[in-house]
Amino acid sequence: MTAVSWLDVLDATIGVCTELGRPDLADRLLHRRAHLLEPTLRVAVVGEQNHGKSQLVNALINAPVCAVGDHVTTPAPIVIGHAPAPVATLVKEAAGGPAREPRRERIAVEEIAEQIVARAPAPSTGPDELLHTEVGIPRKLLASGLVLVDTPAVDDFESTRSASMFGAVAEADAVLVVSAATRELASTELALIDRVARLCPTVVVVLTKIDIAPRWRRVAERNRARLAAADLPAKVIPVSAMLRQTAVKSGDQTLVAESGFGDLLSYLQHEVIGQSELLARRSVAVLSGTAVRDLLVPLQQAVAAEPADGPSEAIVKWQTAQRAIDQLRKDATAWQTGLADDMADLTTDIDYDLRDRTRRILREMDRYFDEADPEQDWADFADWLDKNLAEAAETNFAWLVERFDWIVRRVTRDLVSYRDEVLPHSVLHIDDRLLDEPRELDKPRFERFTASQKLFVGLRGSYGGVLMFGLATSLAGWPLINAVSIGAGVLFAAKSVYDESGAQLRRRQAVAKSGAQRHIDDFFLSYGKDTRDIVRQLHRGLRDHLTATAEQLRMEILAEAQSARHEAELDAAERQRRTAEASSAIERLTALHSRIVALAPNGLALPGPRRRSIVEPVRRWGSAAG
């Protein structure tokens, strides 16, 4: 099968997931598709803590990149690839969150272990959270495109650290599950291998620390037996990272052979690097098989669904009608009480709203006449006042209409089946012509400051100035009437005229405020009475109509029971249509699964309940649908 075949199967699975309403599966497969098309091959190294996982990675690349120790753990994945010169980068979450481009911090390769040890006891969260570490070193093993990923140790499958590990496994082409040779595989490790195999089918169990486990051969055989019994096709390779590192330093070929790394490196060279196409086909077969299994579950339920046994149709109709009549009686009492309360609240709220709007107009009028001259600006003020009163009336009336409509909907919300028929348009319509037109604003009579009054006030004021300064200058031998006393008289006259003008302006402003306030009060009384009359009219009309309609609804409910049979028939037809669609989808999945089976190399077991093929349930449900 050509390289395009697995890509075609994967694209077909993505298309089916999208068509059947599972965008989550489609997104997961699209993400995996992007990784499968990359030129590199990722090998994830996973395992429980203190099993020698990081030391195994260091021995493979012959470099102390990963931190090792009894109380040292890897907080985030370390991605190790080939580079002409050693380079390391810490990739941290950006300040703007996961949606922003991660922040990258270059460090020296020899500082990686120190950085990880510093972070391991208390991993950071937020903008400084370490997402993963990227390492590049010049190694022949990595030059062909192999990328090793040292993952955080597994503790709880639902923890954040385990989620990071499983995320790395989902992007891997092969997985090395590390277990210590000092004991057999624990049940938690078997569960880990099973879950890893569902994400990446190429799994190898690496037994470490054979140098300190005298009975490691027996443990290896027992582990192979346990994997076979659990139907987990994983190869077991025993190794010793300590012997490997010692052999590399000393050049002892005997130790190299005893370390077991020859078998592991041979596997990576021939079964991983040399079989990229095979790995892709296996991954696509497992991922697509898992997706098909997830798609089959709701389809099988749709095909197998049968209507539950129940009372006869006539009894169901009668019981339904009686329950509806009893409920209508309760609802009638409830909406009568609720309508009275709501309309009383509406009257109070409308009156308060109108009073609040007129008070705001009064406050604005006071501020306006604190500065303006009513004699000159009365026409502009009258236009402004008429406009604002009209706007207040329109807004208040619009709120009345909206609130009444809400009351109608709330009172009748229990009559759901008849909501559109209970209220005719004649009840909902509100005629705004019932509101009286506001009368025009009368202009008050303002006191004018005539020229003769100004002359009189000026003469009166100038008298004091001439007399005061004339007497003061007479002490110097000047006559009583002189240039200084005359000038002072002129100034005093101007001051008296100015003060009197201001006083008359304030009196005019007071008169204007009083007249405008009376006009606004008259508007409030007149318009308020009109709105209260409208509310009472609406209340009576709605109450009388609903009371008369209640009896009609009781009869209509009984008539509704007659259409129950017809609705049941339509529901049965709809159920049959959905069953036919589900059957058609099952047939498509059956055809797709045949392509997946053909794609799976060497009879690879596809995911399903207890590792069984899903061909039989697909065929069984397809036959039932036919």
How would you describe this structure to a colleague?
The chain has 626 residues and is of the alpha/beta class. It folds into 3 domains: 37-88 and 111-120 and 136-301, 3-Layer(aba) Sandwich (Rossmann fold), CATH 3.40.50.300; 313-449 and 508-559; 566-625, no CATH class. The protein has helices at residues 3-19, 23-36, 53-61, 112-119, 140-143, 160-170, 187-199, 216-229, 241-250, 253-259, 261-272, 276-304, 313-369, 374-411, 419-422, 425-428, 451-474, 483-560, 564-599, 615-625, and strands at residues 41-47, 78-82, 87-92, 103-107, 130-137, 146-150, 174-180, 203-208, 235-238. Strands 4-3-5-2-6-1-7-8-9 form a 9-stranded mixed β-sheet, sandwiched between helices. The longest helix is centred in the last third of the chain and has 78 residues, at 483-560. The chain starts with a helix and ends with a helix. Residues 608-626 have low confidence and may be disordered.
Main beta-sheet annotation = 9 strands, mixed
Percent of residues in β-strands: 5-15%
Class from helix and strand fractions: alpha/beta
Q: Uncertain runs with pLDDT below 50, 5 residues or more?
A: 608-626
- Percent helix among the residues? 55-70%
What is the number of E strands? 9
CATH superfamily of the largest domain: P-loop containing nucleotide triphosphate hydrolases
